[in-house]
Specification:
Elements (H helix, E strand, L loop, with lengths): L2 H24 L4 E5 L6 E8 L4 E8 L18 E5 L11 H28 L8 H31 L5 E6 L1 H24 L21
Antiparallel strand pairs: 1-2, 1-5, 2-3, 3-4
Length: about 220
């Protein structure tokens, strides 16, 4: 494959990574929390949250959960929803600093992703192959930032579950969390691929030095 074809394929992979990243950042299904349900015909309060808000749902339990004594599932029809849409409301989670940190790191990831996209689009112009290297670095940094955000969120969930101040005792990670992990893999690997593509080519014969080797044209 010629370099230009490789860049186009990498660009398509990056588009999927960007879509996964945006889906993870703007949605509220990173983790689902559930309290223990001791008896039937009672109301319990499950919750799911993301980087920006917490959504609580009151569910009236009429059947025993075959997988345990948890409240839910969260997708159960009916019930009353209550959403908090600002960062200060995350104080309800008792450990807001973790969620605010995860959100701030995700913003850095979005910034790196934007810069990488600008460099990559510019690299398609004639004689601008040099922009592939900064584009690769920006996308790799974006992937690293989102995986750090994922780890911060994981630690936040664990501390909430282990705390005696919260009612939730069970949890699982939902599809927004999966999107964030997918975005890390796609963006980081695509960034490394762009860096490799932008590297100078090896000499064609033993008498040709690396400095004398002509870069392969993209067109």
């Amino acid at each position: 494959l010629r370099s230009k074809t490789k860049v186009k394929i990498t660009f398509l992979v990056i588009l999927v990574g960007i879509s996964s990243m945006l889906a993870a950042v703007v949605t509220d299904h990173w983790a689902v929390l559930s309290p223990r349900v001791e008896k039937l015909n009672t109301t319990c309060e499950a919750a799911h949250f993301g980087l920006w808000r917490l959504c609580k749902k009151s569910i009236f339990i009429v059947e025993e959960d075959p997988q345990g004594n948890s409240c839910g599932p969260i997708s159960l029809p009916g019930g009353k929803y209550h959403a908090t849409s600002d960062l200060t409301a995350l104080i309800f989670l008792f450990f807001p600093e973790y969620n605010i940190s995860a959100a701030a790191i995700a913003i850095f990831s979005l910034a790196f992703m934007t810069l990488g996209s600008m460099c990559l689009l510019g690299a398609f112009g004639k004689g601008r192959d040099y922009l592939l290297r900064p584009a690769g670095m920006f996308f790799a940094f974006a992937g690293l930032c989102i995986v750090i955000s994922v780890e911060v969120m994981r630690q936040s969930v664990k501390r909430m579950i282990d705390s005696d101040e919260t009612i939730w005792i069970e949890y699982y990670y939902s599809w927004s969390f999966t999107c964030a992990c997918a975005a890390f893999i796609l963006l980081f690997l695509s960034g490394i691929s762009l860096l490799i593509i932008s590297m100078p080519h090896m000499p064609r014969n033993p008498w040709e030095t690396c400095m004398d080797a002509e870069p392969e044209p993209m067109d």
